[in-house]
Each structure stands twice: as C-alpha cells, then as structure tokens.
Amino acid sequence: MERGDEPTSVVRRMSDLLAAFGPTDTALGVNELTRRTGIPKATVSRLVKEMEGVGFLERRGVKVGLGLRLFELGERASRRRSVREVALPFLADLREATRQTVHLAILDGTEVVYVEILPGRDAPWLPSGVGGRLPAHATGVGKALLAGASPQVIGDVLAAGLVRVGPRTITAPGPLVRQLRRIASSGIAYEHEESAPGVACVASAVRVDDGPPVAAVSASGWIGKVDIRRVGPAVHTTALSITRALTEGGDRDRRA
After folding, report:
1. Which residue ranges does the record assign to the IclR-ED domain (predicted)?
2. Residue 230, pLDDT score
C-alpha cells in the first residue's frame, strides 16, 4: 500500500467498524468486529484503541460501544438516540404531572451530558443545556448515574476532584460515597443547591439488564416551591417506565 493511500484506508476501516454496529447492538468485542468487517484482528485492536481515545467508541467491560462523541457531532449513535426517542413521551408526562423542568442525561467519564430538557413553567435558572456538561457529582442525574456505576468510574470521579459548582456541592469523598450508597438502595437521588443556587432536584436512573445505567431522568424546581420528596416517586416511576419500554423494544427487535 502506498503511503498516500493510507489515510483513506484508515478512514474507510473506521467507517466499517462503526457500521458494524447494528440497530440493536450496544457493545461488540474485537473478535466480533473482526468477523463482521473482515479487518485483521491486530488492526481492529489498534483502531478500537485510537477511536476510544477520541470518543468515537467507549469501553464497556471487554467490549466497546458507540461513543458519545458521535452524538455530540450529530451522527448516529444508535443507543443514545434510542434512549431519547423512547424517553421523550414519558418525560413530557412527567413535566405535565409535576410542572417542573425535566432532564434526561447520560454519563460520559466524570461528567453528565444533557440529552433532552423540557422546561417547566416558572422554572429557575439552571446551568444545564441540551448537549451541555456538568460534573456528575454536582447534579441529581449525575449522582443517580454514579450510584449504579462501577467502582472504577466512582474512583475516577473522586480522583478528578469534587469541584464546587453550587452553594452546597458535595466536595468531600466520604459524604459523596455514603450518599451514593443510599441512592443505590432507594433508586432516588436528591439535590439541594448542588448545581445552582435555589435549585432542588430529584433524579432516578434508567437501567437495562444488569449493566450500568444508560441514562437518568430528573425533575428540578425552586427550593420552597417544589416538594421533591413528593415528586420523587413520580420521577422514579418515569425512569422505570422508560426502562420497561427500552427492554420491550429490545425484545421486539431481537424477535424480528
């Protein structure tokens, strides 16, 4: 192969690797990628590592899935899009029931990325925005996601430093870890002015199978105007409904 042809070959092979993921595939191993693409295993391993480095792929145990960078570039990251599409009617119902601002977010490293936001009436200013990021430890959705994450992910968050975002952001490892344990047990995460002044939030994770959460949903409003303890069950029910819809949709796809 001539040197001048190499960039085109690399781009084509990267495209083949991404195209190897079907509509229902959330993660594939190197051996399966090799089989589906016909690319030599050593080359697949090298490209997978490089694509992880730029966010085109993300590690999930011994396998990899489509990465968040694809979503941020507006390309087709099927798992991310499907979660939003499935969740949207449930999010709308939650906003109607609570009159609060509703979020759908996913975890990327030590941060959350907001996939969808439905503003509530008379909503407070919130630091979130669609496609925007916040430190996971400083948000309700982030804590809900971290509570179901692996010890390695939680360790990365602690190692990165718990920076202060709002007046009451948790900045000490011990209190955060203890709170994550309670969230893992109850399924509901609460936030009081941790992401912004005057803001209260309740969140719950969306989980599929036995893996880490694929997303989290929350309702946010003014402290003193929203009783998040009463809103909590509605948020939790919404997360469970989205989980059920994703699971049933996956079963239908596998039977097709």
Report:
1. 69-248
2. 87
